[in-house]
């Protein structure tokens, strides 16, 4: 699958992190929609079932973990998004909390271009061959 044919939603509340992530995604050739908080992610997903969601964990109102839990419940009957957490918290327990919430992959902040590239390639592969 071409990078450009993946539907991708980026959730990030911090303006600088958002700018950096958008710059990386443009370099890598992924078109992307943006959500600025958890509420916007849920609203955007209601309109379009994105293939992949890049999900900041530390967001106001509804944080990334709660967004992931709600999407996993909500999308039980339809296509599940591939979710990639982005967080500055790098403890094993943080990682476990992400996976327990239904998140598929994990990027440590500050996000590096090469790491983002790798995570998106894994996502593209997963979307091509959905896990049963
Ligand atoms: Mg944040």
Note down, in words, how this protein is organized.
The chain is α/β, with parallel strands linked by helices and 132 residues long. The protein has a single domain, classed as 3-Layer(aba) Sandwich (Rossmann fold), CATH 3.40.50.2300. 45% of the residues lie in helices and 17% in strands. It has 5 helices and 5 strands, in the order βαβαβαβαβα. The protein has helices spanning 15-28, 38-47, 64-74, 92-100, 113-128; strands at residues 8-11, 33-35, 52-56, 82-87, 105-108. It has a 5-stranded parallel beta sheet, with helices on both faces. Strand 1 (8-11), helix 1 and strand 2 (33-35) form a beta-alpha-beta unit. Helix 2 packs parallel to helix 3 (64-74). It is globular and about 35 Å long. The mean pLDDT is 92. Magnesium ion binds at residues 13-14, 56, 58-59. Residues 13-14, 56, 58-59 line the site of magnesium ion.
């Amino acid at each position: 699958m071409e990078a450009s044919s993946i539907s991708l939603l980026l959730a990030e509340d911090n303006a600088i992190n958002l700018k950096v992530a958008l710059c990386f995604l443009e370099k890598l050739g992924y078109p992307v929609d943006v959500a600025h908080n958890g509420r916007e992610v849920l609203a955007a997903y209601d309109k379009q079932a994105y293939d992949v969601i890049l999900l900041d964990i530390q967001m106001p109102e509804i944080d990334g973990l709660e967004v992931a839990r709600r999407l996993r419940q909500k999308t039980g009957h339809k296509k599940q998004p591939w979710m990639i957490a982005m967080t500055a918290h790098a403890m094993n327990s943080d990682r476990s909390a992400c996976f327990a919430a239904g998140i598929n992959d994990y990027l440590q902040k500050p996000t590096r271009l090469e790491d983002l590239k790798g995570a998106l390639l894994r996502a593209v592969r997963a979307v091509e061959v959905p896990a049963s």
